[in-house]
Amino acid sequence: MQMTLEDLRRILAECAGEGDFLDPRVDIADTSFTDLGYDSLALLETAARIEQEFGVSLPEDLIATLDTPRSLLAAVREASVQTI
What we know:
By secondary structure, the protein is mainly α.
């Protein structure tokens, strides 16, 4: 199963609670995680949820370089292709 932006939006909400990213009319794909109110710890929690739900593990050093939901989705897709 491929992870979508809506899947990521839901996981972000589970990890961070309320925020602009909850409104599906708001395009968050290229909004920085900083602008979304995310810090490195929240991203690590998000990555852990992605691994639990989608079976895709992202290295911590890679997670630190991801700055937008689009870049995170691309990394998840690339990692899932490599594990097949």
